[in-house]
Amino acid sequence: MRVERIALSGFRNYDEETVTFEPAVNVVCGPNAQGKTNLLEAVYLLTGAHSFRTRFDRELIGFDCDWASILADVESGDRSQTIKLLFRRGQRRQVIVNGAKKTSASLAGLMTAVLFSPDDLYLIKEGAAARRRLMDSAICQLRPGYASLLADYNKLYENKTRILKDWREKPSLLTALDEFSDGLARCSARMIRYRASFAERLAAAAGPIHRDFSGGKEALSLTYRTVSTVTDPRAPAEEIYAQVEAHQAAHRQAELDAGQCLTGIHKDDLDISINGMAARNYASQGQARTAALSIKLAEREIFKAETGEYPVLLLDDVLSELDVTRQEFVLNRIGGGQTLITCCEDEDISRRTGGKVFTVREGRIR
């Protein structure tokens, strides 16, 4: 799995720029605010046409442009593929694969990437939303059906939230409340199974990595937590549906009183422990960073096991946030696949990795 060439037009601060990557390590260097992260964002968009920085396509388009495009040649499954993403103001994005129009979900498995950014160093200490994003972004790349389920769930959730907020002014809205709740329960049942399976695999892969990282001194464990009435998140979907529906029914009046959605998988989390203690509450900063690194490297291993190829690894200015020991641990484990590393200074990183160096200044790459 690798990106051979990518061409950007009107994307962020790139007017017209084309770059050909090496199949191993590529070091993207330059001062801050020159476009390094924009380049990694463009590569990440190839995995599902969704950015890790914004929900809005309009923010991907350059200030003086009406549209933006990303055109890339990728090698996936021993096949050369061409992916084009087109973003126009006020219009839906277009996804074109090998000349044929596709949906965003069709990119799942075609192109996979694991991103590690400075924000991920706080994955352990942040709220549950950060860990849900970890699960959702990974599963969307591996399972096309999950991306559609997630989109459906978000729409249903927005509609139900609007009803709960406005029903006092418009009581007629309540006639649709149970319909949206039922839709949420049905989506939830299927998504819970996906998340539980991924969390189980993530825990199995992250544990040994963290043990090596800590010199055998620490045991990392991850446990998926969802709606409390769900007794087995790997049970058949119909069984989970009934349990989620029961939880919703028990909270119906409380939701009406509060004017907000109080129950659902939008509150799911990964409970992370180190040596049996909750990492969010008790881990030191160093332990939290080690755990976050282990989880991200485990994500890479899952992609490899699933597709037979390492995903493209995107390291966005993360090495500067790590001490030398953690840097070396990461660099020693990135072999076997394509990696893009951004940094402010190239000399040390390129020497340690043997990577090809690209310099970015004001949206120009050399």
Care to describe what's here?
By secondary structure, the chain is an alpha/beta fold. It folds into 2 domains: 1-112 and 311-366, 3-Layer(aba) Sandwich (Rossmann fold), CATH 3.40.50.300; 121-307, Up-down Bundle (Glutathione S-transferase Yfyf (Class Pi), Chain A, domain 2), CATH 1.20.1050.90. It has helices at residues 36-45, 128-142, 144-166, 177-213, 237-250, 252-258, 279-282, 285-307, 324-331, 347-353; strands spanning 2-11, 14-20, 25-29, 67-76, 79-88, 94-97, 100-102, 113-116, 220-225, 269-274, 277-278, 312-316, 339-343, 356-361, 364-365. Strands 2-1-4-5-6-7 form a 6-stranded antiparallel sheet, with helices on one face. It has a 6-stranded mixed sheet with strand order 8-12-13-3-14-15, sandwiched between helices. Strand 10 (269-274) and strand 11 form a beta hairpin.
Provide keyphrases for this structure:
366 residues; Glutathione S-transferase Yfyf (Class Pi), Chain A, domain 2
Question: What layout of secondary structure does this protein have?
Answer:
Elements: E1 2-11, E2 14-20, E3 25-29, H1 36-45, E4 67-76, E5 79-88, E6 94-97, E7 100-102, E8 113-116, H2 128-142, H3 144-166, H4 177-213, E9 220-225, H5 237-250, H6 252-258, E10 269-274, E11 277-278, H7 279-282, H8 285-307, E12 312-316, H9 324-331, E13 339-343, H10 347-353, E14 356-361, E15 364-365
Parallel strand pairs: 3-13, 3-14, 8-12, 12-13
Antiparallel strand pairs: 1-2, 1-4, 4-5, 5-6, 6-7, 9-10, 10-11, 14-15
Helix pairs in contact: 2-3, 3-4, 4-5, 4-8
